[in-house]
Amino acid sequence: MIKKTNNEIKETILKFIYDYYEKFKNRKLSLDKLKKELKNLGLEENEIISNLENLIENNWIIKEEEEYSIIKIAERIKIKVVYLKIGKKS
Predict the structure, then answer these.
(1) Looking at the chain, which runs of residues are DSSP E strands?
(2) pTM for this structure?
(3) Cα Rg for the chain, rounded, in angstroms?
(4) Alpha helices of 24-75 — where are they, by DSSP H?
(5) Rounded CA separation 18/51 (Å)
(6) For the chain, which domains are there?
(7) Looking at 1-5, 25-29, 52-56, 75-79, which range is the least confident one?
(8) What is the pLDDT of residues 57-82, one digit of tens each?
(9) Which of 21-30, 34-43, 46-55, 81-90 has the lowest mean pLDDT?
(10) Neighbouring C-beta atoms of residue 51, cutoff 10 Å
(11) CB-based contacts of 67: which residues, under 8 Å, 6+ apart?
């Protein structure tokens, strides 16, 4: 398999997020779901993360975090979910 350049990977990430929100207008896209779907497209985790971080740093993608609490066996556990959306730059 031919390795993609960082610019091609960033384009793939942006296109996936854009297409996701075109299809599912009222659903949020979690980081876990994004990574899973991009891995299915043949990208490796380190490629995804490094290029995604660059897109976030340059405001192409906005990262939002939500915290939830659940109670499991009489203990409160906090869960943090990271959601992504297209930034204003794109």
Answers:
(1) 29-30, 61-72, 75-86
(2) 0.82
(3) 15
(4) 31-40, 45-57
(5) 16
(6) 6-86 (1.10.10)
(7) 1-5
(8) 999 999 999 998 888 888 888 989 99
(9) 81-90
(10) 23
(11) 78, 79, 80, 81
